[in-house]
Amino acid sequence: MDKTYNPTQSAPVIRLMVLETDKPHPDTYSERGSFGRILHNHFARAGRAHHPPLGVETDQVFVVSEQGGRIPTVEDFNRFHGLLITGSVYDAHGNNQWILELLELLKTLWIKRPDFHFLGVCFGHQLLARLLGSSIKPAPSQDWELGHCRITLTPVGQHLFRTSDEHVYLHQMHQDQVVSPPTAGSAGPDMLSSDTEVACWGRSEHTPVQGLYIANRLFTTQAHLAFDEDMVKRQIQIRVDSGGIQDLEHADRAAETAHLEHDGVEVAKAILRSFVYDDDE
């Protein structure tokens, strides 16, 4: 269990279970730990910026059973306020046994825990959209959205991020995308009621759905929150080496943007506000 508390003992603590669906580059792991550990530190930083500060607790479970992971049980989530699904080299529209088992677990939690928060990054964003009935497909152009990218905010996104700016900037690393936001009935009557509003908070030229939001329930982002320059370059190289990215010029151009500042902390702060409202106006 990773814990980050603020100095005020009575301050709220958000407890998240991080479902790790991939492993970082070995050099990243030796420097910063697993994706769960990296996200813990990122949200701890966002928690310190909350008003008043929030404490953050996380636990991590590596869920790729074909690589030695395990799918947790429903009871494993009893003491948590929410879960976060990480990015992955796997396809969220795939039917690997661990993906199907994870979807079944998520469906059970969604139905049994109406108080629970579901968070997803990249693969996690796409998997949660699939859970709720959306289609996940490769981009029509067949190209990748890579590196430092501009995301155009919808009015919902501007409200969530408390900004009048029209754009945020985040690091991307994906070819697949959510085709459209889920709608009531798309995954069955037990999942989304007819009065549930599923909002899209941002879009880009490559990807029409950059993130999904349901008040007090769901917050996803196609882009990555916690990548730094070295992580971006290493994760691009992993996909080049595996043959996933074949346009080497595109990969090189994206790697050259890895040093640029991004808004990952602002997204994490908005996610924490979905748990505990703050008074920072």
Write a brief structural summary.
This is Glutamine amidotransferase domain-containing protein. By secondary structure, the protein is of the alpha/beta class.
What does this protein structure show overall?
The chain is of the alpha/beta class and 281 residues long. It has a domain at 13-136 and 176-222 and 263-275: Rossmann fold (3-Layer(aba) Sandwich), CATH 3.40.50.880. 30% of the residues lie in helices and 23% in strands. The protein has helices at 26-32, 35-48, 97-112, 123-131, 155-160, 229-242, 248-255, 264-273; strands at 2-4, 13-20, 55-62, 82-85, 117-121, 136-138, 145-153, 167-174, 176-178, 199-203, 211-214, 218-221. A hairpin with a 3-residue loop joins strand 11 (211-214) and strand 12 (218-221).
Layout of secondary structure:
Layout: E1 2-4, E2 13-20, H1 26-32, H2 35-48, E3 55-62, E4 82-85, H3 97-112, E5 117-121, H4 123-131, E6 136-138, E7 145-153, H5 155-160, E8 167-174, E9 176-178, E10 199-203, E11 211-214, E12 218-221, H6 229-242, H7 248-255, H8 264-273
The CATH superfamily of the domain at 13-136 and 176-222 and 263-275 is identified as: Class I glutamine amidotransferase (GATase) domain
Strand elements, count: 12
CATH topology of the domain at 13-136 and 176-222 and 263-275: Rossmann fold
Helical content stands at 25-40%
Features:
281 residues, ten-stranded mixed β-sheet, two-stranded antiparallel sheet, 30% helix, ChyE-like, Class_I_gatase-like, Glutamine amidotransferase domain-containing protein, GATASE
